Amino acid sequence: MVLLTNSSTRGQSKQIHKRCPMATTEEQKQEKGAEPTPAVFDPVKALEQPLKLLQTGNDTHKFVGLALLKSILDNQQILREDHQVIAKCWTAISPRFLDGLLRASQSQSRSRQEAQNMVELAVAIIHVFVVLLPPEKRESAKLVGRTPGLVAALLQRWVPWSRVSLSRSIRLIM
């Protein structure tokens, strides 16, 4: 806080407080009558928003929810180690939505870059959960069932000329 002194017309001093709008000092909090509280980040609470977004019917909200979820899980080791939290997050993700992201391609309404971002997010989410889910959950149909979509996405990315069916493409690489 910066204190400035100004002379008034009567010769008395006034103190003008110049405050930074973004920061609140303990003194300012006490002036407002607020209790000084330390800022504490609650990682479990941070998951509420992405999980809520994943439950909506709007694909854009689901996409944002997945991106937020990935970011939180990438940066919060305490969450990564909690198998119940990981299972709850995995349950909130629609396999149908992940499959749709894996199939994303360029169209009149979607640029090549947007389609690529969608596929990359789906692959990244699947990777996060392959690493974090406990072994018994990794063997679930929900996770293993994403394999054909992953293979097709990889083939589209690395073999762009292939407009052939998935089964024919797999035969080509085997």
Task: Write up what this structure looks like.
This protein is mainly α and 174 residues long. The chain folds into two domains: 2-32, no CATH class; 45-160. The chain contains twelve helices and two strands, in the order ββαααααααααααα. A two-stranded antiparallel sheet has the order 1-2. A hairpin with a 5-residue loop joins β1 (2-7) and β2 (13-18). α3 runs antiparallel to α4, α4 (59-75) packs across α8 (112-132) and α7 (95-102) crosses α8. Residues 1-26 have low confidence and may be disordered.
Compose a concise summary of this entry:
Helices cover 61% and strands 7% of the residues. By secondary structure, the protein is mostly helical. Helix 3 packs antiparallel against helix 4 (59-75), helix 4 packs across helix 8 and helix 7 (95-102) crosses helix 8.
